[in-house]
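Q: My collaborator sent me two sequences in one message, no labels, and asked for predicted structures for both. Can we handle them in order? The first one she listed is below.
A: Yes, handling them in the order given. First sequence, followed by its structure tokens:
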Amino acid sequence: MKLAAVDIGSNAIRMQITKVTQYEGVINFKKIEYLRFPLRLGLDVFHTQKISEVNRKKFIKLMRAFKILIDLYEVDDYMACATSAMRESNNGKDIVEEVKEEIGLKIQIIDGNREAELINKSLERYIDERAFLHIDVGGGSTELNIYNKKQKIASKSFQIGSVRALEEKVHAPVWTSMEKFIEKHIDPKTKIISIGTGGNINKIFELTGPRKNKRFLDFEKIGQTLDYLHSFTLEERINKLNLNEDRADVIIPAGKIYQRAMSIANSHRMLVPDLGLKDGMMQVLYEKNKTKKPL
């Protein structure tokens, strides 16, 4: 079985094609194609509330390329989801309809709750009896989910994201709302483990180097890495640290969002499982199709 997930974010657009196999009762998800294209739709939307004509044309071309790959790989099923930038743009629905009519690719514009729900699908195996704060920072929004004893007790999406923060488009009341949400649902006496998802926290994790706990970051280590990044100019981050241009400018604002949420929750450790929206979409697609045909 071959499945495809398209994640249309505010800072970049990703497509992954996965082959699902079963051997001796074990289900295996193998990535056979992955593409990330730096189309920053959020830059348009957070300033003008619409996707520009230039980016509309690029987006149409990109979706056409993705559809060709989906057909070439003979994908059994796919899911394409658009998040913050597309859902906030005045012309987002029109562009989605244009893609459907011209290319035959169906795109769902999902709200923050659905986005969080899909991301959570990929995290289920990491959630145990302890208390967790899941923080997913995208280009245009941040989704927070709070778990205790394997149950999700609260979830909310905030208009706080890396591109939005870079462009100084996050308003003070939104920060206050996030702070109140965390304080309402987390007892300050509770030991909270954070879970960080999103491209920027994965890159911060990578930059911290080898560690004893393979997938964990300490709060202090995140701060040290952000200070390290801040010591370079944007040009140096691109050329000396080999960061993509669309990563180099947003990684510090994104890191500060993770820091702020952890600080409010008094969380000292973060699990970084290198999962995200596309992985949740894959899980949903698998569950939908697993009984249709042999793997």
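Q: And the one she listed second?
A: Here it is, processed independently of the first:
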Amino acid sequence: MTNLQTLLESCLPPEAVQQIHEQMYVHPALQSGVPGTVTRAELAQALNMALFHGLLQRVPAAQDYMASDVVGQQRQVVFDHGALRTVRWPGGALPAGEAAFTRLLRPLGFTLEGTYPLPRLKMTGRAYCHEDFPQEIAQFFVSELHPEQFSAPFQSAVTRVLSTSRDPLGPQDVADLEQLARDGKLPLQQALRLLPTMLQCFARQHGVFALEDYELLLAESAEMAWIATEGNAFNHATDRVSDVDAVAERQRELGRPIKDKVEVSASGRVRQTAFRAATVQREFLTPAGRVTRAVPGSFYEFITRAELAVGTAANDPVQGPRLDLAFDAGNATGIFGMTAAAK
């Protein structure tokens, strides 16, 4: 059994481990490690695969797509990137904004490759790419919302919602991450202990809150309202396909909830579209007691990346043309609308 399989079995049932291996392409080098020692790349890949599997469980349209267009066509997903939302605001025990995740991503081997202002959303997006396998290990697109740019009542609601936040990482986890950052690897038993805890970071860390606060947040920011109900769960996971326009047309013909248009980057090299967000049920507090309301959850995205021109700085002179792994602020803003549209 490979390190990757052993890691995944620490946080997923056996049938899920088999399923995700069948569904997702994994670079051969990530499946032939040294027994008993887990590299940062292996741990990063295991985390990404577990997060991808978790998102599939929350998005019915993605499950249908996987059954008919991936497994049904005997191909595998190339996991391009996962996205999560954070809020740069003090509250509870959780570090504010992206700091709650850079403490994981950097020891795992991810480095900041691009910053993308999203002024219409009053957010900032940042892309983290893996140093060892930049094209093969899925990137993280981490966005931060800036409450200071909203009204005072909005800021007060954010404070109340986040006040009960907990931090999933304990002292031993922090020590393991420091060791991983220093050595680039961990003994298998430490990695097996750390992975499930890291997965807990990609969830909602605060408790049930007032429906009145949710409605106040929703009036000014669909993105903050989403963070309030879903926390730091994967907002979406993205499948890298060869022709996103053809994929979108097929999904439309099948009657799946695909976005009306394909977003195209300023460079023309990055094309994206997505399913609309799944609808989920969440509890809220009211003076009369708890109530349940339907709200937007996560979604599944598709992306096509063209190669960089020969001679560009990011082009590898040995391996030849590389994909354009950058993001685009305009594309990101359009994709963010998938959750707003579902409210």
